[in-house]
Design a protein that fits this description.
Helix content: 40-55%
Strand content: 5-15%
Radius of gyration: 21 Å
CATH topology of the largest domain: Beta Polymerase, domain 2
Mean pLDDT: 90
Largest sheet: 7 strands, mixed
Shape: globular
Oligomer: single chain
Number of strands: 9
């Protein structure tokens, strides 16, 4: 069986570099500082915080296209005062856009492009691409609200609890959960579908349910996760519908709400193919053959066998598989790359 060290080498390789992390830090700190200093926006700004995979430490290295490394993606949330009755999502997006535009015109932010989205403002800076989303402060039910400027609706959300939940999962997995998520995200990047979904946090929730928390060999863990996912969602694949995935921060939230059956089925088929390649890799003692199968999942960055390791049987035997029944409940308190 492929030594676990080969997976840990891959995990180290797909982590964001110190340069990427440094660029991300400089970019998000500049944007947050500009919002706090804006003479108009600071009157409604309660506080701001980081979200997304940057905050949860489940980001993978940025893509490289034509020899050029993409800028990392970062999520910032600007919490503003007020309730849903007297706030329009469109107006709050416009307020945020105006504040950021003032920082651009003054030279405080070197923004090269700025776009209004349904729920956020997308910024391109030299160091990073940043999405800034306005959130209404926690309402009476304890949740933030994020608005859709196109529909005018406010929705419950809690990115801080997502971060806390992810940390809890990492503890439950003995420190392995974030690495498992990074492997899954890398496999998704190396084997894309025509559809964007399921995206980052949905994949974390999938791994929390389907990956076993007691195994330590990453090859066995990923094989078990692929197998559990395929078995659990086989009926949805047969009928061509997208199942629901519980949002760990919102009691009745569905992380796959709005995802088409076609998009889910395409993702399911990739996961099924991953299961088959992982099964073949774990079943052979030929390191070259095993590597060939793992590279079908993780691409050419998966390390080559150590010289002389081919056809040497591993002393490690596969552990029995076990799966949690459901995702762990989110923590009660809110907590603190992409």
């Amino acid at each position: 069986m492929t030594p676990n060290a080969r997976f840990t080498e891959l995990i180290k390789d797909i982590n964001p570099s110190p340069t990427t992390i440094g660029n991300s830090k400089a970019a998000h700190e500049a944007v947050r500082k500009a919002l706090r200093a804006d003479e108009t926006y600071r009157d409604i700004l309660v506080h701001d915080f980081l979200g997304g995979s940057y905050s949860r430490d489940t980001a993978i290295r940025p893509r490289t296209k034509n020899g050029k490394v993409d800028r990392p993606d970062i999520d910032i949330y600007a919490v503003i005062s007020g309730g849903t009755w007297f706030n329009s999502p469109k107006n709050r997006i416009d307020d945020l856009y105006a504040a950021l535009d003032r920082a651009r015109r003054s030279g405080d932010l070197a923004i090269t492009n700025m776009t209004r989205n349904r729920c956020s403002i997308s910024l391109s800076l030299p160091q990073a691409d940043i999405d800034v989303s306005p959130l209404l402060e926690r309402q009476d039910d304890g949740y933030y609200r994020i608005g859709n400027k196109d529909t005018g609706d406010w929705y419950r959300t809690d990115p801080e609890r997502h971060t806390e939940w992810s940390t809890h999962q990492n503890d439950r997995f003995g420190g392995r959960f974030k690495s498992i998520v990074k492997l899954q995200k890398w496999a998704r990047r190396e084997n894309p579908t025509l559809h964007r979904h399921p995206k980052s946090f949905s994949q974390e929730a999938i791994m929390a349910v389907h990956a076993p928390d007691h195994l330590t060999h990453y090859g066995e863990i990923m094989h078990a996760a692929f197998t559990s996912f395929v078995d659990h969602h086989s009926f949805s694949r047969v009928v061509g519908i997208c199942p629901s995935i519980q949002d760990p921060a919102i009691p009745d939230g569905n992380l796959l709400a709005g995802v088409s059956g076609e998009a889910f089925c395409a993702f399911y088929d990739k996961m099924k193919a991953h299961r088959d390649h992982a099964d073949a890799a774990l079943s052979t003692d030929d390191q070259d053959k095993g590597t060939s199968h793992w590279r079908q999942i993780f691409g050419p960055r998966f390390p080559t066998p150590v010289s002389g390791a081919t056809n040497v049987k591993s002393a490690v035997r596969m552990s029995p598989l076990a799966f949690p029944d459901a995702a762990a409940a989110p923590g009660r308190k809110p907590a603190k790359f992409a």
